[in-house]
Amino acid sequence: MEAEVNALAHCCRELFPVIDIVSEIGKTVGLETDNMSTMHVSIHEDNAGALVLAETLPPQFTPRSKYYAIKTVWFREEIHKRGVKLLKIETIEQLGDIFTK
User: Fold this and answer.
1) Relative to the CA of 1, which of 19, 32, 59, 69 has its CA 20 to 30 Å away?
2) Please, what are the averages of pLDDT over each run of 10 residues along the chain (101 residues)?
3) DSSP annotation of 47
4) Integer Cα distance of 7 and 1 in angstroms
5) What is the C-alpha to C-alpha distance for residues 2 and 81, in angstroms, rounded to an integer?
């Protein structure tokens, strides 16, 4: 589960600046970007444990997750603040999973 949480944190590290850039460009061009939920950003995750750790606010930890939560805890609040949806996907449908096996 640690690898899944780290991958989710890395995905958020790449995604959040893109959301910020789109917001800034929208303001410059004159588009309304006040309602960020209209962007419909979603992240697909196949690990149920990683989804529970990412969606739980305030952060709660399992005995194993408390050791690696320090470097990944930051994205939990950002996911809720930015309106990013975390969706459960079956392992069979997870195309990127072939690179981790």
Assistant:
1) 19
2) 81 89 84 65 84 74 65 78 87 71 59
3) -
4) 10
5) 23
